[in-house]
Amino acid sequence: MNEELRYRGRIAQVGIYLKKLIRMFVYQNDWKMLPMAALIGGVVTFAVGGSLFHTQEGTLSGCFALVCVCIWNGFFNSIQSVCRERPVIKREHRSGMHITSYIAAHMIYQMILCALETVIVLFICGQAGIAFPAEGVITRFFIVDFGISMFLITYAADMMSLAISSLVRNTTTAMTVMPFMLIFQLIFSGGLVLLEGPAAKLKSITAAKWGLQNLCALSDYNNQPMVTLWNTIWKFRAMEIDGQYPIKMMTDYIAANNMRDQLLQESGQYNMNPEYVREAANILHCWGMLLLIIVLFAVLSVILLEFIDRDKR
């Protein structure tokens, strides 16, 4: 391999390393990432798929769960891909390997892997009975917009993980760091914990935040009914005040006059989130931020590996 690399240009080296990665996919069990993606997608859709795209609460929890799937898949794709062959990279870099070619090959390979995982997860969602809306925002088809968004989330997480793999010394360290990366992404996505003050500003540096905003906006979160208010009021039907049951009387009146759906819809209007507006500009902005994360961490991977010859570890 060293002699082959010595006299090849950058583009040719991309092809050489891409073929190497494909061989590793086939013969070193890297293909196991695909059934793992199917398993994780199946578990998540089974848990939260029933109310996705129907209520604000169901859409938020369902989109958050899908973002978790994307982040998880992306992190696992590349967290060990560089550090597991660090001595080989150092030796081949001294023999004429271009780091940009090496990372470019990884980017192409990981892009294909992320695309396959996205298709698998969407297929699992369909098989689980999730009914996707028909009309998209950017394209004519919702499933295409949603698929592009999930792919970008997965790929952004993948490039983050690739940068970590380019930094750490071995696979043990990489697998130790990965849970902290995952926790940081999920906490600062804005979907799990209500963030205020300085903590809220950290959301913008996470792929999970832009991914959740993207999926919720596509899903038309703001125009869906909210059921939390009604369900909470319903729990207090047995409350007695001076021998009267005012909450029971109110809920019975609403139900008898077929006003429940109107109440749910009105509740949703008071629970709108300006970040989840279903507009092309909002979707494209989220896509742009995810692409920026992809590019920044790919460049960071190159920079980190350019100094591999000085690594005395």
Low-confidence stretches: none
Q: State Rg.
A: 24 Å
Q: Which structural class do the helices and strands define?
A: mainly alpha
Q: How many helical elements?
A: 14
Helix fraction, binned, reads 55-70%
Number of strands: 0
Main beta sheet: none
Number of domains: 2
Q: Strand portion, in percent?
A: under 5%
Oligomer: single chain
Give the overall form.
elongated
**First-last Cα distance:** 24 Å
The chain-level mean pLDDT equals 88
- Could you state the order of secondary-structure elements as H and E? HHHHHHHHHHHHHH
What layout of secondary structure does this protein have?
Elements: H1 2-6, H2 10-27, H3 33-48, H4 56-78, H5 86-94, H6 99-127, H7 142-167, H8 171-187, H9 198-201, H10 207-218, H11 228-235, H12 246-256, H13 260-269, H14 280-306
3D structure, described in words:
The chain has 313 residues and is mostly helical. The chain folds into two domains: 2-224 and 273-310, no CATH class; 227-270, no CATH class. It is built from 14 helices and no strands. The protein has helices spanning 2-6, 10-27, 33-48, 56-78, 86-94, 99-127, 142-167, 171-187, 198-201, 207-218, 228-235, 246-256, 260-269, 280-306. It is elongated and about 85 Å long. The two termini are 24 Å apart. The relative contact order is 0.14. The mean pLDDT is 88.
